[in-house]
Amino acid sequence: MRIKEETITLKDGRELTLRSAEEKDAQTMLDYIVKTAEETHFLVRYPEEISPDIEREKRIINDSLEAEASAWFTVFDGDKAVGNCSISRHRNHIKLKHRCDFAIALEQAYCGCGLGTILMTKAIDKAKELGFEQIELGVYADNKKGIALY
């Protein structure tokens, strides 16, 4: 699902762009994914598990744009991806179609300035719009900032 581009303003006055990632963003998305994986153990992959394949990343991006039951919200500082969150259908079983998964990651330089709250609010609003009634996420017990946000 494509997210309409908009400018967001952080608590510290920085203005960033929120939109869907596109094919042209494949390299910055890979760089962002590796950087966030290096900065914290809270994500599901280690940096060395991330494939540097640009063509694969383009396919992932295009699949996200075409998906009807999911949405990616990517934040850019200029042309550089610095944050991302997503909602996606938990499973396609009839009994579970009301549930979605939520994921979020920010570069540490963009933590503590309201970006997580903005992204989470956008994701919750989109989840409601798509008819989801339950949002699920996993969080490490030592992720105090994440727990405070959620």
In short:
This protein has 150 residues and is of the alpha+beta class. It is built from 4 helices and 6 strands, in the order ββααβββαβα. Helix content is 32%, strand content 25%.
What are the defining features of this structure?
150 residues, six-stranded mixed beta sheet, 32% helix, Aminopeptidase, alpha+beta, 6 strands, globular
CATH architecture designation: 3-Layer(aba) Sandwich
CATH topology: Aminopeptidase
- Largest sheet, spatial ordering of strands: 1-2-3-4-5-6
Radius of gyration (CA) equals: 15 Å
CATH homology group: Gcn5-related N-acetyltransferase (GNAT)
Percent range of helical residues:
25-40%
Tally of helical runs: 4
**Domains counted in the coordinates: how many?**
1
Binned strand content: 25-35%
Uncertain runs: none
Structural class by SSE content: alpha+beta
